[in-house]
């Protein structure tokens, strides 16, 4: 037993988090910043955080993740990090020549109270930012929120720093995709293209963290949202923010500063959320939904009707980010599966409420937790009390899955022991089919494994 | 070093690299890039701060303390006091394997858990000591561990939470749990290295020497600086067992608190990773009289050499004979394996930029494969790791080292007993056994090889262009950068999830893995075939009507 010390009895913990179902803000900020073309993320703090965040992202995407650090030492911690950051900016532009640098803070620079706005202004005034280059920034104290909060803060930093509001309306819709995989961003762009909708999407890590092997390392890969496109997003018709936690902040900023109205949607995972996404996008872009979407949707529905017997009534436990878990739970319910335990370390009361609402009819006894102490230790204890047929979550779930002998599919961040997430979407109708394939694969492999030889069957 | 090892002069590339830097930085980096002459004493700048904005391989003090030294100990609850991230990132990411026996009582294993106080903003504003005390209590109530280690992260140091005071209080309160803290805030020091030092200090202060039980075996050693990545420690255990040598404690692969507590009863300390743990060896020598010498179990020849050194030290013919027997038993299959791999590897070129000691040790393995290391450096080495311990007295302590506590260790009046007499040690030294010494990496590297400390991303790119190595060894952050340049990268921290690479079996694994890398066909197919068309001779013919 790998987690042999986890007792079945749930005892109240007030101060101890064990096996967190979240991590800290800067890693999200770093990921979001990579979604801008030509951008070098920069971590303002001691280099350990930057090293960890780069490693975490590298292990998940299996691609180069470049970022600078202010490399604080004791002195900078006492006297403030201004000189480190000024020096860092000058060095990065000289040596690594990015189009823009996206700075995020860490717990350290936040605790000493470094004022990023003032330092960036000073850098610009002192001529440390070359002509035509940009510096954007956001605050990401890790003792608030989670990695999702950091992602959101950087997306807001991106619009704040890059949007040029001209007042001249542009016939386009902003899509803020939320913390999803590059494959998902690609699929969302594909949906927009098939709809004939004109969009600006940011951040967009498609082509940045899933780069091709060509024998040539590119510090700034071809992908990413273009600065000049983001600049126009203040003149768009509307913003579609996918995921309340990761995307609403930037959408709100565009609304209050550029009068671009927004609508918050779920990340289009599963049937219902995809339906809403497609409709909302078609409405906003004023296009009619082509018939091909009836087919696209119909294929997903077909797989569900064909295979529903294998999933109907199966119990599922899941953990991850709120923006992902909400539509995923809805999808599971559409499949008549029963979510029994849903955990997100990312705080936000709306999450618990939403999951309870969704489950009210079909799974009223669902256990939900989020925020502090909503960790995988608790999830595991819940599973011990009510065994499940399937576990969905990031790689760390494999320890629970092994101990409790539960079929397991990987979804979320980080996935460090499998591939596929960067290449195959789980959003949209097509993504729904992939999710089904994975779930059915896990559940039916198990059925095969456990079948007595006389009951082992060819056709399933 | 013989002339045939002489490499092409890298001065030009060094100049080219430096030309890109602003002048002040160029001057600084120049001192960290040395064109090696093994005959000379060349000074290398190292263990100095990384320049802000430079893309570096380095991590932080906390990573060295919690991640490297304490991480591999299975029966301690390592509680990270800070916001959630620090604990999350060090959760199972260093591959320290362990083998707790579930059947036996005390087969505790907390290594698969990540513990954190998950500090929130009100803890930052009002202080987190209460929360820490509560978290220790809860950890105790749920897990009843033998020990709880508390690690400070950056914000904790800044707001002034006293992890030591809280730990002391809780230790007293709990009674049967050894609670102690580490001031290993990430910003202390210039790299992981500071964390190693802090970890050693606290282990020495709070654990070493707690159990005076006499070992039952004849030859008792500790293995210092072996972290059991990929099961290296298991392989070394196997060899020691075969030879009849008892490892009291490994620091800290597959280790337990009880083994630490008893480690001062050993006759000898064997230091693998000089950087991370020379402190422990020295402290144990001063306090208890245990001599130490440097060993290397990376490479079959190195392993044999290390085992023979141990035989020499114990001056026991029976043991020496047993060691020779084991070497004779193990070597034939090693020779066979290397001969096979060599068909692919002979004459190939490697570059190595990894943590302390590994950048040195793996050169021997590559040497066995007929491969030369043309450029190497440490992520967080100090001058002695390059130039040898002889430079220690001359190293000036700068501000960044001064804030790492140097603990005062004295002879233990009752328990000090010199395991070997001065005369014996002198005699052994005369025989070439480097007692209490380490010569560093530079003397073992070829003439004109390029040594680079704390290599930057920019330097990495240029050196790849210059040397076009057949293989590049580094860590996860470098892995895909290098591979996207068309050069295979072997991770030497995680071994790309292979291993073990230590000892005889490990060497064979390494040969096979390198052979695999060097014969991986895809590297030759990276370019789309149509891109080569212009240069390819192309036969174009037309039908004659
Ligand atoms: S929690 Fe804070 S100190 Fe820790 S890794 Fe994250 S940003 Fe760094
Ligand atoms: S060999 Fe390297 S990575 Fe390993 S502990 Fe020593 S310094 Fe660290």
Describe, in short, the structure shown.
The complex is a heterodimer of chains A (460) and B (545). Chain A is α/β, with parallel strands linked by helices.
Question: What would your notes on this structure say?
Answer:
Chain B: Residues 60-516 form the Nitrogenase/oxidoreductase component domain. Chain B: Keywords: ATP-binding, Iron, Iron-sulfur, Metal-binding, Molybdenum, Nitrogen fixation, Nucleotide-binding, Oxidoreductase. Chain B: Its cofactor is [8Fe-7S] cluster; [7Fe-Mo-9S-C-homocitryl] cluster. Chain B: Belongs to the NifD/NifK/NifE/NifN family. Chain B: It catalyses: N2 + 8 reduced [2Fe-2S]-[ferredoxin] + 16 ATP + 16 H2O = H2 + 8 oxidized [2Fe-2S]-[ferredoxin] + 2 NH4(+) + 16 ADP + 16 phosphate + 6 H(+). The complex is a heterodimer of chains A (460) and B (545). In chain A, helix 11 (270-285) crosses helix 13 and helix 12 runs parallel beside helix 17. Helices cover 46% and strands 13% of the residues of chain A. The model of chain A has no long low-confidence stretch (mean pLDDT 97). With 460 residues, chain A is an alpha/beta fold. Chain A is globular, with a radius of gyration of 23 Å. In chain A, the strands form 3 sheets. In chain A, strands 12-11-10-13-14 form a 5-stranded parallel β-sheet, with helices on both faces. Chain A has a 4-stranded parallel β-sheet with strand order 3-2-4-5, with helices on both faces. In chain B, 42% of the residues lie in helices and 12% in strands. Chain B is built from 21 helices and 14 strands. Chain B has a 6-stranded mixed β-sheet with strand order 1-12-11-10-13-14, sandwiched between helices. A 4-stranded parallel β-sheet of chain B has the order 3-2-4-5, with helices on both faces. A 4-stranded parallel β-sheet of chain B has the order 7-6-8-9, with helices on both faces. Chain B is globular, with a radius of gyration of 25 Å. The N and C termini of chain B lie far apart (69 Å). The model of chain B has no long low-confidence stretch (mean pLDDT 95). At the A-B interface, strand 1, helix 1, helix 2, strand 3 and helix 3 of A face helix 3, helix 4, strand 3, helix 5 and helix 6 of B. One iron/sulfur cluster sits between chains A (24, 26, 49, 52, 106-107, 142) and B (82-83, 85-86, 89, 153-154).
């Amino acid at each position: 037993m790998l987690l042999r010390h986890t007792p079945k009895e749930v005892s109240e913990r007030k101060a101890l988090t064990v096996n967190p179902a979240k991590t800290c803000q800067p890693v999200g900020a770093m990921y979001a910043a990579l979604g801008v073309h030509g951008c070098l993320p920069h971590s303002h703090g001691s280099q350990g955080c930057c090293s960890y965040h780069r490693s975490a992202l590298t292990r998940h995407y299996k691609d180069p993740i470049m970022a600078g650090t202010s490399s604080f030492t004791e002195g900078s911690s006492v006297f403030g990090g201004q000189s480190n950051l000024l020096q860092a900016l000058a060095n990065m532009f000289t040596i690594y020549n990015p189009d823009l640098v996206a700075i995020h803070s860490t717990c350290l620079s936040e605790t000493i109270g470094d004022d990023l706005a003032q330092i960036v202004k000073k850098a610009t005034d002192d001529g440390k930012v070359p002509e035509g280059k940009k510096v954007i920034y956001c605050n990401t104290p890790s003792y608030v929120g989670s990695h999702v909060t950091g992602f959101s803060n950087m997306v807001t930093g991106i619009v704040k720093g890059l949007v040029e509001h001209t007042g001249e309306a542009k016939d386009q819709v902003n899509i803020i995709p939320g913390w999803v995989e590059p494959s998902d961003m690609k699929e969302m762009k594909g949906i927009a293209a098939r709809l004939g909708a004109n969009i600006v999407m940011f951040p967009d890590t498609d082509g940045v963290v899933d780069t091709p092997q060509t024998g040539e390392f590119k510090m700034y890969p071809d992908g990413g949202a273009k600065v000049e496109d983001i600049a126009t997003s203040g003149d768009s018709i509307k913003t579609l923010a996918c995921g309340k936690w990761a995307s609403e902040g930037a959408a709100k900023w565009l609304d209050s500063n550029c009068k671009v109205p927004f609508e918050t949607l779920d990340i289009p995972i599963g049937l219902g959320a995809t339906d809403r996404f497609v409709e909302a996008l078609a409405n906003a872009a004023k296009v009619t939904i082509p018939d091909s979407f009836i087919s696209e949707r119909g294929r997903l529905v077909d797989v569900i009707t064909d295979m529903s017997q294998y999933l109907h009534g199966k119990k599922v436990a899941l953990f991850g980010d709120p923006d992902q878990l909400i539509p995923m739970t809805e999808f599971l319910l559409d499949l008549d599966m029963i979510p029994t335990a849903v955990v997100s370390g990312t705080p936000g009361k709306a999450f618990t409420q939403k999951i309870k609402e969704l489950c009210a009819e079909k799974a009223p006894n669902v256990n939900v937790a989020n925020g502090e102490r909503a960790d995988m230790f608790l999830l595991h204890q819940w599973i011990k009390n009510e065994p499940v047929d399937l576990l969905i979550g990031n790689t760390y779930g494999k320890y629970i899955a092994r101990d409790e002998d539960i079929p397991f599919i990987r979804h979320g961040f980080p996935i460090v022991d499998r591939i596929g997430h960067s290449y195959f979407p789980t959003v949209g109708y097509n993504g729904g089919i992939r999710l089904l394939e994975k779930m059915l694969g896990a559940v039916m492999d198990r059925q095969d494994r456990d079948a007595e030889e006389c009951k082992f069957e060819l056709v399933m | 070093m013989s002339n045939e090892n002489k490499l092409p002069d890298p001065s030009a590339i060094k100049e080219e690299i430096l030309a890109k830097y602003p002048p002040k930085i160029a001057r600084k980096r120049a001192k960290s890039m040395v064109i090696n002459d093994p005959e000379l004493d060349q000074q290398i700048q190292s263990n100095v701060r990384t320049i802000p904005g430079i893309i570096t391989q380095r991590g932080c003090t906390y990573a060295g303390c919690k991640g490297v030294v304490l991480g591999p100990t299975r029966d301690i609850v390592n509680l990270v006091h800070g916001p959630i991230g620090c604990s999350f990132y060090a959760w199972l990411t260093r591959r320290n394997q362990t083998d707790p026996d579930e059947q036996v009582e005390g087969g505790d294993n907390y290594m698969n858990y990540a513990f954190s106080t998950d500090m929130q903003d009100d803890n930052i504003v009002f202080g987190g000591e209460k929360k820490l005390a509560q978290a220790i209590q809860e950890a105790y109530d749920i897990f009843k561990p033998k020990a709880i280690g508390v690690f400070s992260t950056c914000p904790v140091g800044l707001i002034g939470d006293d992890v030591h005071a809280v730990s002391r209080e809780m230790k007293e309160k709990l009674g049967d749990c050894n609670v102690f803290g580490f001031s290993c805030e990430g910003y202390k020091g210039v790299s992981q290295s500071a964390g190693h030092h802090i970890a050693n200090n606290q282990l020495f202060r709070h654990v070493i020497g707690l159990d005076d039980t006499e070992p039952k075996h004849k030859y008792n050693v500790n293995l210092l600086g072996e972290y059991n990545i990929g099961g290296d420690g298991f392989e070394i255990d196997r060899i020691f067992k075969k030879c009849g040598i008892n490892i009291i404690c490994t620091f800290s692969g597959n280790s337990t608190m009880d083994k630490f507590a008893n480690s001062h009863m050993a006759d000898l300390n064997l230091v693998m990773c000089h950087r991370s743990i020379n402190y422990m060896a020295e402290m144990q020598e001063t306090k208890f009289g245990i001599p130490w010498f440097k060993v290397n179990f990376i490479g079959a020849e190195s392993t044999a050499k290390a085992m023979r050194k141990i035989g020499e030290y114990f001056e026991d013919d029976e043991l020496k004979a047993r060691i020779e027997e084991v070497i004779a038993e193990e070597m034939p299959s090693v020779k066979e394996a290397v001969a096979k791999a060599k068909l692919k590897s002979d004459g190939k070129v490697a570059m190595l930029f990894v943590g302390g000691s590994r950048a040195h040790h793996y050169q021997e393995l590559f040497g066995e494969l007929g491969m030369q290391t043309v450029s190497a450096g440490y992520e967080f080495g100090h001058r002695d790791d390059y130039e040898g311990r002889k430079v220690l007295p001359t190293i000036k302590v700068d501000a960044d080292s001064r804030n790492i506590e140097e603990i005062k260790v004295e002879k233990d009046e009752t328990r000090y007993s010199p395991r070997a007499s001065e005369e014996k040690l002198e005699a052994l030294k005369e025989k070439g056994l480097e007692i209490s010494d380490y010569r560093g990496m530079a003397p073992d590297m070829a003439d004109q090889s390029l040594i680079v400390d704390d290599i930057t991303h920019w330097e990495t790119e240029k050196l790849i262009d210059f040397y076009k190595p057949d293989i590049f060894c580094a860590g996860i952050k470098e892995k895909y950068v290098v591979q996207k340049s068309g050069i295979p990268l072997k991770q030497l921290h995680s071994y790309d999830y292979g291993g073990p690479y230590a000892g005889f079996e490990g060497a064979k694994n390494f040969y096979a893995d390198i052979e695999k890398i060097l014969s991986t066909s895809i590297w030759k197919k990276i370019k789309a075939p149509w891109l080569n068309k212009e240069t390819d001779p192309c036969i174009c013919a037309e039908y004659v009507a």
